[in-house]
Design goal:
Layout (H helix, E strand, L loop, with lengths): L5 H12 L5 H18 L6 E8 L5 E3 L4 E10 L6 E2 L1 E2 L19 E5 L2 E3 L8 E9 L3 H4 L3 H5 L1 H11 L1 H4 L5 H23 L5 E3 L8 E3 L4
Parallel strand pairs: 5-6
Antiparallel strand pairs: 1-8, 2-7, 3-4, 3-8, 6-7, 9-10
Length: about 220
Amino acid sequence: MALSTYDELVTSLQDWLHRSGLSSQAADFITLAESELNADVHMRQMESDESVTLTINTNTIALPSRFIEPISFELVISGQDNIPLTYQPPHRLSYNTASGARCRPQFWTIDGDNIEFPNLSDATYSAVFRMVKGFDLASTSTNALLTAYPGLYLYGSLLQAAPYLRDDNRIPVWQSRYDRLLPKVKRKEGRKNALTSLVTDHPSSGNGWRSNIITG
């Protein structure tokens, strides 16, 4: 059976489990497996440009749905090239949210569920937030991960069925296949991303110090 869409994966899971009428449970197995895959695998196709708005007199923007990791943040100014802002970890920012300290943002960070800026905004700005976005197969029907590596979704979902199946002698086989496949995928996708590791300058350091935006 083909494994190119969400519906096909649901059907295949029922076939592999030799149980019909498990579509709702299969959906849960896929969701649980996908949550782990989103944490373990970083494909270039997961990088997404999200349009966001920073409202005047505020200094936060709610993170877009399915956010995993930040990449960059740029203001969109009419008639100009996009203006990239500098990422800094929360502890490096000096916050001043008094109304008299309003300004166009220069720095940004991620704090909790928000994109955050050290000052209140002096205007309403459109922006592009580039981020690593998790897959959600149920809402998109298919995605790059399922297309390239259907075995990860299949075996990962079957493993999530283990508590439901209890003592099933097929579980070690599924685990073995998943464990062999996952490192291969991570290595392959890691090589694709190796030349595009994001770094950022920290002007406040005065020495051109650069660091990876994800690790700080």
